[in-house]
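Troubleshooting log. The previous structure file for this entry was overwritten by mistake, so regenerating from the original sequence record. Sequence copied from the archived sheet and checked twice against the printout by T.R.
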Amino acid sequence: MVYSVRIRVRTRFSVASGGASFAAGIAVRLLTRSELPMVSVNRKFLTLAAVLAFTCVVAHAAPPELIPVGNTSNKSDATGYGAVSYEYKIGKYEVTNAEYCEFLNAVAKNDPYELYDGRMGAWNPDAEQWGGIERNGPPGSFTYKVIAGNGKRPVNFVTWQSAARYCNWLNSGDTEKGIYNLGVEPLKLPKHAELAKGEKPTWVLPTEDEWYKAAYYDASKAGYWRYPGKSDEPSQANIGSNQPTEGGTSGPASAYGTFDQGGNVWEFNESRYEGKAGLRGSSFWIADNAGYMDSFTRYDDFCGKWPHYGFRVAAVGGAK
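Regenerated output below.
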């Protein structure tokens, strides 16, 4: 994906960002000599001296960190979940406030799809306020910033559709263009096994099998744990702790290296039942270890926005 930055002398800078959106204000710095090959310069309007004289706003934000999941010959668990016959990658952490804030600044100046929820704008767990992103300005000029100290906590108060639009944006830079056609009913879900054959990775919400395998499967024992974090007993997650925590700080990693698949926020996936969206993983908001057992799946409305609902992304394809 290519983004352009313009300065007054009509010089055009083209920056390949690998899926991250251009967002003014992410970073301001001088271009260095090592970066000059990335810059397309109209020499009629700019000299090397002018390049060195101007600062340029450049997108530094990276997409969510991913963990590879292989072992394509694994069988399903006794629950019927977990068998995935292709390689894929899944988020090491849940999508954070910082990552979602970048998304909002890129696409939600007007916010017609209600990607932002007003409850995101307050953080005071003692008063049951668990948001992490502030919004400022009038419609058409909305800007967003992370509440101090909350950048690495998982974003919450999001719907399934908002999570799908985030994936579309990672793929195309546009919430309405990508793997999920949200303007068509019934929604047609992508076939991940076919996407896995592609030369380039496609950002998606994980299937329930992909999510399950990353959380519970352990190739070293050729089988599954009952809980995320390589345990057959409830592991130390932040279940019922009254607030989400920074990714990776509230419990051990899975065998593949993912964090917080047992706790923090319930995570949307692509499963559905009787018109409702599937979630896995339990949350900080409920003191119940059963929620993140291998046998437990939760379903709720696609448009549900709750303080203990969030999501994690995956990428399929581009393995070879």
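The domain at 66-316 is CATH 3.90.1580.10 (paralog of FGE (formylglycine-generating enzyme)). Archived copy saved in two places this time.
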